[in-house]
Amino acid sequence: MKQLLYTEWLKVKNYRTFWIMLLVAIIMIPAGNYVPAQVMSSRDLEQASKMLGQSPFGFPTVWQTVANISSYMTALFGLMLIILVTNEYTFRTSRQNIIDGWERRQFVYAKLAWVVLLSLIALLTAVLTAVVFGFIYGSQSFSLEGFSYMWYYWLQLLLALCIALLLAVLVKRTGFAMAIFLGYIMMLEQTLVLIIKRVAGPLGGLLPLQTGDELLPFPLVGKMVDSMSTRYDDSVYLIVLLGYIALAIYLVFRKVLKSDL
Amino acid sequence: MSILSLQNISKKYGAVQALSGVSFDVPKGAVYGILGPNGSGKTTLLGIVTDVLKADTGSFTLFDQPATARQRRQMGTLLETPNFYHYLSGYRNLEIAAAIKQRGHDDIARVLQICGLTARQHAAFKTYSLGMKQRLAIASVLLGDPDVLVLDEPTNGLDPSGIAEVRELVRQLAGAGKTIILASHLLDEVEKVCTHVAILRRGQLLKSGSVEAVISRHDFLELAATDNTALQTALAAYPGCTSAQLNGNVVVAVFNDSPDAAAVNRYLSQQGIWLQHLQLRKKSLEKAFLEITNDPA
């Protein structure tokens, strides 16, 4: 594994596109949380949130708030992964790596390492953002209550990145894979969720990324929406989400191990 | 020991039968030419051996063992095109190849030197000319000085001096006892270095084995005299001569065994024919190859 990681490191060490995208993706997490934090800490809304009994950017609610908002910034990490994987097909280095002495499964391990690494980078950034914002915008003292929302955020990231990986190995072409990925996570799935929810009720909440959204409602608003619609227990969404991750990884292995490169 | 042993390999791309039931063995120390016209299945065959393509049926071994990445790391392979990260320099690309082959970086300078890329080693791969890309691919093959080399059209994209250099390199490597598997449609390339050949046509193995056994190339004689017609008649009467044909200014005489030029000369002088030209020639591999691959059977 160490040798796989070292090789992947050599591939990106001098790859400027990668570092710029990573920088932007990281900055987007605190930046994306900054605007809502500013708005909600304005005097009027502060009064409102006090009446509701919790401030969204104060401990312990800040974990949930930041996890929820950050989950909208996942796309860039997915695009980075797509570039890292489709590059191998564009340059035909997916073949050369095997020819030179990797097993096909090692190629998959190397890319799964990126899934884990990128998701951990995003998680860490979100955790730091929550800690800093919690101290700046909240009046309560530090608390880890509700930190589990951060883990839900991480799982949803893992799933989004696994979907990106699957698309990359299936489609192989960078632009095409990016278009499908963005189209799906930004519009297509939400549309399907709404249609299915209308026709078949809470079943619509079981579409891949929606399982994560169901686990990550926005504080206050989420509760109000929840009371109006029927939904499954959190454990159902959690199990289905993990199931999707396992399925995506299985399909990636199947594709890479069985087909011509 | 067999370096590579293929048993009944078949592969289809949709309706196209790219390989059908190909079997042969590459012995250690051989320089094994895989010959065939474009589209005959050479690259498909090597792709299967290197695990980038999956055979539909059949099996193969490398170093008498089931093929895994460990065996591939002991081979230097250039398959079809030079495949490198465009945004990285030649040197950094070789670092990646060395890491995957689990060899140190200390050999990189040597292989760059052999392939004449030392001066451009830190330029990005995407700025290389076609010939330089091919040279980098050959450098990558040589990394770690493997005992087995697989070269698929190694002179693609090279200029005449580059082609000559690669041919010389292959000859040196063969001289050093390496096993080389060389796929090519450039027959003089193969003719000059190969000990063994396999000939493919439309995915079928036509012949395989040592060069002498596969391609029977009896020597023939090229002769000329003042009266070539008389020469022709005299040769036709010579025991063992199967044909004597006028070809421009010379008569080409073919025999059913290697001819003894001195004996032929003596015989002709006894017939009163004095030669102006006598040369022992070998049938070119190209001609022999075309005879085999054009044979409708």
TrEMBL record, chain A:
UniProt keyword annotations, A-Z: Membrane, Transmembrane, Transmembrane helix
TM helices/strands, residue ranges: 18-35, 69-91, 112-137, 149-169, 176-196, 235-253
Pfam families attached to this UniProt entry: ABC2_membrane_4
Ribosomal protein in keyword set: no
Full protein name: ABC transporter permease
TrEMBL record, chain B:
Molecular-function annotations in GO: ATP binding
Keyword set, alphabetical order: ATP-binding, Nucleotide-binding, Transport
Pfam families assigned to the protein according to its UniProt record, in alphabetical order: ABC_tran
SMART domains from the UniProt entry: AAA
InterPro entries attached to this UniProt entry: AAA+_ATPase (IPR003593), ABC_transporter-like_ATP-bd (IPR003439), ABC_transporter-like_CS (IPR017871), P-loop_NTPase (IPR027417)
UniProt domain ABC transporter: residue ranges: 4-227
Keyword Glycosyltransferase found: no
Entry similarity comment: Belongs to the ABC transporter superfamily.
Name of the protein in its database record: ABC transporter ATP-binding protein
Species this chain originates from: Chitinophaga qingshengii
